[in-house]
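Good morning,

Attaching, inline, the backbone tokens for the sequence recovery test we're adding to the shared suite. The designed sequence is right after.
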């Protein structure tokens, strides 16, 4: 049986979201202003949502080996890296130019949902 990389990535992203959430709540709370802490929390929140989306995509892929599911899974992973990752980097480094990446991650999230929808309609 072939490894389902989407399930592995979902578990990894979920675990990292818990760790980053704890870091934000306990490590950054005292050193960041509330606005920046909220941005960090937004990154964690969207990472959680899309870890679950990736988990669902991976489970669907166990039953249906369909290209649209591959597109959705890779889009969700890309979205987490670009959206959440850029928020984490922005908050931790203060480099405002990093924030230009965030909308590309949001677009990847949207595309992931579109690809999942296309799969469900075509199935």
């Amino acid at each position: 049986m072939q490894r389902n990389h989407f399930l592995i990535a979902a578990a990894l992203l979920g675990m990292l979201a818990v760790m980053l959430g704890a870091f934000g709540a306990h490590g950054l709370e005292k050193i960041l202003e509330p606005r920046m802490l909220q941005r960090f929390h937004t990154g964690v929140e969207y990472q959680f949502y899309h870890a679950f989306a990736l988990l669902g995509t991976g489970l669907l892929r166990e039953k249906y080996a369909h290209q649209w599911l591959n597109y959705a899974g890779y889009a969700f992973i890309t979205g987490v890296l670009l959206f959440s990752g850029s928020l984490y980097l922005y908050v931790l480094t203060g480099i405002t130019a990093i924030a230009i990446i965030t909308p590309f991650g949001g677009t990847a999230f949207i595309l992931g949902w579109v690809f999942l929808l296309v799969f469900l309609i075509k199935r």
